[in-house]
């Protein structure tokens, strides 16, 4: 489960409120045995997640599996589903407080970046809620490998196999107003 979460940029959070059922994509990261998200203090989703149970999903599609029959086509994937209630992360004298959690988020996105940028200030942290949900009630589902054709379909003259999919990093695009050379972690981005 940790590997599935650690490879994710986005999770989908499903919750219910007086307006109905919602599923919202949001950035996520993991510290220890918790999944973290953040949002504006005024966010309807953020407020609701602290009041009731929710479901969080992460899915990575690794390939399209082409079988000899339409029914047996599939996908190779890795997925995690987390159930529970989010809790707010407050400032802490020791351990993982709100500021440490947000710094871990930056390091999850781009390792090495946190040490070069202006850290969040008191006003920014006051306007942001950081939430975490325990990974105690969760399930993973993974599918990998070739097609699983029925014996009677093995004679069908159709190509069968896997069309792999992967995330690819593109070429870096510097801000036109940035005159400084790219640091190592930026130059290594597309490696």
TrEMBL record:
UniProt xrefs under Pfam families: Pyridox_ox_2
InterPro entries xref list: Pyridox_Oxase-rel (IPR024747), Split_barrel_FMN-bd (IPR012349)
SUPFAM superfamilies linked to this entry: FMN-binding split barrel
Name this polypeptide is given: Pyridoxamine 5'-phosphate oxidase family protein
Organism: Pseudoduganella lutea
């Amino acid at each position: 489960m940790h590997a599935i979460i650690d490879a994710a940029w986005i999770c989908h959070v499903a919750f219910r409120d007086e307006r109905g059922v919602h599923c919202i994509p949001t950035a996520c990261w993991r510290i220890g045995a918790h999944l973290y998200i953040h949002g504006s203090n005024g966010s309807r989703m953020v407020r609701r997640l602290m009041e009731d149970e929710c479901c969080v999903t992460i899915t990575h599609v690794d390939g399209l599996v082409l079988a000899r029959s339409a029914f047996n086509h599939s996908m190779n994937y890795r997925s995690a589903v987390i159930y529970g209630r989010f809790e707010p992360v407050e400032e802490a004298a020791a351990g993982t407080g709100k500021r440490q959690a947000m710094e871990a988020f930056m390091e999850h996105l781009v390792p090495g970046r946190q040490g070069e940028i202006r850290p969040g200030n008191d006003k920014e942290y006051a306007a942001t809620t950081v939430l975490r949900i325990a990974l105690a009630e969760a399930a993973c589902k993974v599918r990998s490998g070739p097609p699983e054709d029925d014996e009677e379909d093995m004679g069908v003259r159709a190509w069968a196999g896997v069309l792999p999919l992967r995330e690819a990093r593109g070429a870096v695009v510097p801000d036109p107003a940035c005159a400084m050379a790219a640091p190592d972690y930026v130059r290594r981005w597309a490696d």
